[in-house]
Amino acid sequence: MCVSFGKRFLVVAFFSLSRVFALVFGIVAAGGLIHARCTTAQAEPPNHDVEQDWQAVPNPVFRGGQWGYVDNQGEVVIEPQFALAWDFFENRAAVYTANRSGYIQSDGEWAVVLPQDAFSAREFSEGRAWFRQNGKYGCVDSDGNIIIPAKYDWVEEFSAGLAVVTTGRRADFGTEAPYTERWGFVNRSGRVAIPLEYVDAGSFGNGLARVRRPGQRHWEYIDCRGTVVFSLGQLVLEPGEHVGAAWDFANGRLRVSIDGSGPGVPYNLALDTMGRPIRGGFKYRLVGSFSEGLARVKVGDKFGYVDTSGRLVIAPRFDEASSFQENLAAVRIGDAWGYIDRRGTVVAKGGSGKEAKWNDAEGFHGGLARVHIGGEFQHTMDGPVWWEGGAWYYIDRCGTIVALCRRDSTRFQRPGFGKELPAPVP
């Protein structure tokens, strides 16, 4: 096992296609083109006991006022030349120059060049990526062919061969404007697969997606044909309890929050793909969604992890914890971050002191992760958060610094905030 303690580590920043219209850095996950098709709900989650494969990808770095890419040894493989650059997914990375927007491939050549008035809006997923043009979303394939012209008001990435799309508008807060927004699903060919008849919807996971119809209080979960498999209104709860939020399926499990006035409320339930609660230790104050077979839980004021059966497999001893990516998870004890393996063993951490301690950390992607050292953390009440000063660095799975990503000399958006790529600044 690769272990590295007590070294002086400096850190890196990164970009990802993101939901907010602000400068953001991406969360990394191993790339690979997946051609999924509509299947029945997965009854049992996959086994993640063995180490997963991952593929090294070029990593964005800021040098001399422009963005380029380095490999996993920190060597420059794509010269700095971009105004903005994001992580690689499926051998494509979104980039902007002064007069061009689109996606490059790992050798630095342009694979997709978008129309002059369009810009990238999502990472590639299942061979498709969304772009924005005149305030609407369209879709391209990995060769740059326009599959869907820009016509939707909101979109999500493709999953199981389908993507959430919306038309219409929400009523502005505090106004009497009519609510006309409708949600549905399109397939990879651009055809509407499930009609736009819902007032809200989530992405497919384990063959199921959450939807809510007009006038409906509870989420329903449908299959790829639009057939309702179960409704959260069918859950049997204690008096005074009701369903709060619900998320998308992952690893065969669904996270649902239970609110109300009963004892022990609020708490979370995990459901299987038939909508049945998983018996066991799932009544925690906070449960993160499953990733690689494990989910974060909060017991008292500490975080730990459970498996898909609800068994506590990593004791709650962390002050903050993130999801597992490439079989490692970033965790915080006190004011310092490090990484644990699936047994809960710390396998990488920064040194001591302000100039060596990791004060922020992100997930692994292609064998590298980004950590932050130095600077002061800034935030607003309801807006974005960022680091002022310090720097982001790339580390390998042993915690060794591979390359500097970017120094934060000004207000720099914190990595991982949202999913929407920002519009290029004229």
Give a short overview:
This protein is mostly beta strands. Helices cover 0% and strands 41% of the residues.
Tell me about this structure.
- The chain is mainly beta and 426 residues long.
- The chain has a single domain (59-413), classed as Methanol Dehydrogenase, Chain A (8 Propeller), CATH 2.140.10.
- The chain has no helices and 37 strands.
- It has a 4-stranded antiparallel sheet, with no helix packed on it. Strands 8-9-10-11 form a 4-stranded antiparallel sheet, with no helix packed on it. Strands 12-13-14-15 form a 4-stranded antiparallel sheet, with no helix packed on it.
- β27 (320-321) and β28 (329-333) form a beta hairpin.
Write the layout of secondary structure elements.
Blueprint: E1 59-63, E2 66-70, E3 76-82, E4 84-89, E5 92-96, E6 101-104, E7 110-113, E8 118-120, E9 128-133, E10 136-141, E11 146-152, E12 154-155, E13 162-167, E14 182-187, E15 192-198, E16 200-201, E17 209-212, E18 220-222, E19 228-231, E20 241-246, E21 254-260, E22 267-271, E23 286-287, E24 294-299, E25 302-307, E26 312-318, E27 320-321, E28 329-333, E29 336-340, E30 346-349, E31 360-361, E32 369-373, E33 376-379, E34 385-388, E35 391-395, E36 401-407, E37 412-413
Antiparallel strand pairs: 1-2, 2-3, 4-5, 5-6, 6-7, 8-9, 9-10, 10-11, 12-13, 13-14, 14-15, 16-17, 17-18, 18-19, 20-21, 21-22, 23-24, 24-25, 25-26, 27-28, 28-29, 29-30, 31-32, 32-35, 33-34, 34-37, 35-36
